[in-house]
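Hi support team,

I submitted a single chain yesterday and got back a structure, but I'm not sure I'm reading the token output correctly. Could someone confirm the output below corresponds to the sequence I sent? I've pasted both exactly as they appear in my results page.

Thanks,
R.
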Amino acid sequence: MTETSLTTPPPVCASCGAQLDESAVECPRCGLVRRAPTVCPLCDAVAYVEQHPVLRYRCLACGGPRVPVADPSRVPPAQEAAELRRAWRQHRGAGLWRLAATLATVAGLIAITLGGGIAALWSPPVAVSVTIVAIASLPLLLALWCRARTRRAIASAQTALDVAWLSAARSVLAGRAEDLSMQELGRVLGANRPDSERWLAALGASELVATRVDDSGEILYRLQAPATADAEPATDHESVLSASPGTERKRSSQ
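Hi R., thanks for writing in. Yes, this is the structure output for that exact sequence:
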């Protein structure tokens, strides 16, 4: 584990971005409890996290994606760490593909401009003009291909993040002796209600979660087999997520 720790809490809320005093225990705007720095599964540094528009949360030490579980003693499952690495790799790959698409677009526009100028000054036969324009358009075709690869990498990164968060939700349930409500799970994971519903729906679809209703009418959740909490389930989390109702609603809204 890295000796250096980023022990200074971030000046803004990791959830809503509100400004926070260094001594603040929770966010005055959204009520999120300020979490203690935890070990990053990617760089092994003890560091805080901050909100990210694509990665959801990222480590302040290495910039990689993190699941901000409010439990410093929790050891992330192997699948969670592997999926976070995959998401980070795909995220960086998307940035490179986006840069390549931009460069190819600029090169294509320059080539078309030069080709059009040459054709206007030289007045070649139509077949030659068409050939010049076709050759000059090749960089634009390359740009379209790079943009398609960018979208594919972004989608792959989001899928990996979904699987990582689902694995984290399972490990949280496995590490708790008491049942958890949806609100409590969201508070521990730093997730909103729709995301908590998705994780629980996916775990329920794989028959990993049992539910009960308490005296106040609130639904509580627990893992079916807490004795095997340290072992990764044989369930394909990615397939379960894609089949869960919440994921279908999320995709249809896009």
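A quick pointer for reading it: Helices lie at 78-122, 126-136, 138-174, 182-189, 193-205, 237-243, 245-253. Let us know if anything else looks off.

Best,
Support desk
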